[in-house]
Amino acid sequence: MLNEAPPTPVYRFGRYTVDSVRRLLLCTGDRGRLTPKAFDLLLTLVEHKVEIVTKDELLRLVWPNSVVEEISLTRNISVLRKTLGEKPDEHNYIVTVPGTGYRFVAPVERTEPPSPAPQLPVRKPWLLLTAIALLPAVAVSAWHFWPRARPS
Question: pTM for the whole thing?
Fold first, then answer.
């Protein structure tokens, strides 16, 4: 079998689902609008659930090989909080750890996506029909060209 990538998990918390394969945030079936970096940030926080992720770690993980100001991180955290419906005095999902970083605090359920059904071999009826159609021609050719014993 070919080297297959390990299944990428789906995360559920509250009324939200983070589909890391299709890169979607779903809210009870409706699609949430996130920029690619905001999605990466959310995914990183969810994957490190309950852990404090420092600002430096987030900058390194979400913006690899880039020089980014901390304001980009702050802006994207703000976008996530709005998208998740948090009010300024609520911290149901993302908590700021002053001077350190952020922590995702909602209970997260991680599930593996269903594995695809095994693929059955594709039947090729045309191949069988071609073989059946050619069989008489092969038989006649073999009879005609087969060396025969010559009468002496």
Answer: 0.69
